[in-house]
Amino acid sequence: QEFEMAKPNTTFNLDVKDLELIEDALHSVIAKRSNDLITAGDAKNSTVDRASAEAEMSEMRELLGRLHNQKNWFRPKTGHSYIGG
After folding, report:
1. Would you give the distance in Å from CA 37 to the centre of its chain?
2. Distances (CA, A) of 17 to 20, 21, 60, 62, 72
């Protein structure tokens, strides 16, 4: 019997609240890693792998950027200029 390789799901059903939760979690992890790096810089015997932590934070920032770029931003359809706020 031959098995097919599982194909990844490329369609996700997430609502705005789900995306907000994911973004908040990513921001929290980035903040924690940043704090760990700052604390590790002050410690003499730090076990924090700076290169790994920076790579991980970079990957999370890139993901946040991709999520941001996929959003449809609301712009009122009026004859007036729109100033976001």
Report:
1. 19
2. 5, 6, 19, 20, 15
**SS3 state at 57:** helix
Q: How far apart are CA 12 and CA 67, in angstroms?
A: 13
Residue that has been written with the tokens 């609502």 in this structure: 15
Q: Report the candidate in 28, 22, 32, 36 with the shortest Cα–Cα distance to residue 64.
A: 22
pTM: 0.70
* Cβ atoms of 19 and 67 closer than 8 Å: yes
pLDDT in tens, 20-45: 999 999 999 999 999 988 888 776 66
First to last CA, the chain: 60
Q: What is the mean pLDDT of residues 39-65?
A: 87
